[in-house]
Amino acid sequence: MNKPAATDGPVSPVLSGWFDSHCHFDFPVFAQNRQAVWQHCESLGLTGLIVPGISCEQGKQLASFCQGRPWWFALGLHPFFIDQHTMDDLDWLERALVTSDCVAVGEFGLHRVRQMDPAIRLRQRRLFDAQLQLAQQYRLPVILHGVGAHDEIILALRQTRFDQGGVIHAFSGSEQQARQYLDLGFRLGLGGLLLRPNAHRLRRTVQQLPLDAWLLETDAPDMAPAVVASATNSPVFLPLIGVALARLKRVTPATVRAVQAARIGQIFRRSTDLSI
């Protein structure tokens, strides 16, 4: 059974301001002050975020976690947590893709840096291929994690003729790789790496590509921007990244917000809108 494609409709109020396209807001580090953090986010103009899935156990909680909130969620099996996954988790994932209001399959992908065990690399690839197939079958975009594996991922997308698009999370590859992803219908996740003093290649790539090639994200609580004192990242830093992107592209922050809203709404269309 195929999940019905979402239809175009009114723009969700979630997309009226800054939007964090990748935030692990369900992680325990936020448990004690999550509401206060979100109120701070709202005071800075954030109106929504996407919580990625990383495992079966965590994914089962995401619908209730996001219910009644301006938070969307994806479902997937993250390669970094390969020891937590079984092939049976794919059966759960398929059922959840049909019955839930998730906006994407992910976060999944290939994590090759410092991972030389052939058996683990093979398990990563099998889970990657299976999740890509599910996304194609149920006409959902993907949130892809690629560390040391961009060429392998690009080849797989081409060979499978995947045409549902999505986002390459925390992209830091070459301009050539970036353009290949764009040609395949993807957008590139842009986070705190942009603010690092030594991120010269990334800033050059941002300058060379169109503004709508990028989707803003924090990856909180990981990858805190170098310009902030906190070791724990937070969605409150999303506007900092947006302003940095605006300056680099020589446009206003309002322009960045508008372009982001258009792209988020186009890629992650929901079958039902949230009442918030």
Distance between the termini: 30 Å
Q: What is the residue-averaged pLDDT?
A: 92
List how many beta strands DSSP finds: 8
> Helical segment tally?
10
CATH topology: TIM Barrel
Give a quick rundown of the structure.
With 276 residues, this protein is α/β, with parallel strands linked by helices. The chain is built from ten helices and eight strands.
Describe it for me?
The protein is α/β, with parallel strands linked by helices. The protein has a single domain (15-267), classed as Metal-dependent hydrolases (TIM Barrel). It contains 10 helices and 8 strands. The protein has a 5-stranded parallel sheet, with helices on both faces. Helix 7 links the parallel strand 6 and strand 7 (186-190). Helix 9 crosses helix 10. The longest helix is centred in the middle third of the chain and has 20 residues, at 118-137. The two termini are 30 Å apart. Residues 1-10 and 272-276 have low confidence and may be disordered.
